[in-house]
Amino acid sequence: MASLSDLVDRSALDQYVIASAETDSLAASGPVYTPQGEEYAEALRLLSERQYRQALPILEKRPDYNTALCLTQLGYHKEASALLDQLPVDSRKEYLHAVVSARQGDDYLAVEHMLAACRMNPNLVLRIPLDPELSDLIPKFFGLRMELDRIAEGK
Predict the structure, then answer these.
(1) Alpha-carbon distance 154 to 108, whole Å?
(2) What pairs with residue 19 in β-bridges?
(3) C-alpha Rg value of the chain to the nearest Å
């Protein structure tokens, strides 16, 4: 079964790399992180394993997209939405914001964020059926299915 936890942003770890296999033979088994990076990597592991309560205190030290994802999974939608409003716009953030908006009952805002996410990354159209908050919106809005199909086809 799919979960929003599948949307964890592992690229956020890149900022904590101090050695990689390309630059250092010590890192042959994987990247070497700063102590903060090791802690963050542990939080992402917990998040991926759906251990949200354990991940949140670590993630809250450096609030980012993954923190908003964790807040969402815990049902803290107002807090997640406020954090998402502060983050740079990208497809992943827009998609999560769509889910949060739908969970808060703001279908119009959810559709706006969903379309923005899909226009930035058409592959996200394929993700929508996995998230009932978003797939349930499609029959509610005339023309939404056609617009999503157009986006997926690259038109």
Answers:
(1) 23
(2) 32
(3) 17
Say whether pLDDT at 125 is over 90. Answer: yes
Rounded CA separation 27/152 (Å): 39
Query: Mean of the per-residue pLDDT values for the chain?
Result: 92
- Decide: 139 and 132 in contact? Cβ < 8 Å: no
Looking at per-residue confidence, does 111 or 29 come out higher? Answer: 111
Half-sphere exposure of 126 (CA within 13 A, CB side): 5
CA distance 155 to 145: 14
Predicted TM-score (pTM) of this structure: 0.91
Contact (CB, 8 A) for 114 and 126: no
Contact in structure between 92 and 7 (CB atoms under 8 Å):
yes
Give the per-residue pLDDT at 24.
Answer: 56
CA distance 101 to 110: 5
Instruction: Name the burial class of residue 148, with classes exposed (0-12), middle (13-18) and buried (19+) by CB atoms within 10 angstroms of its CB.
Output: buried
Residues present in the chain in total: 155
- Residues 38, 72: Cα–Cα separation, whole Å: 23
The per-residue pLDDT for 21 is 59
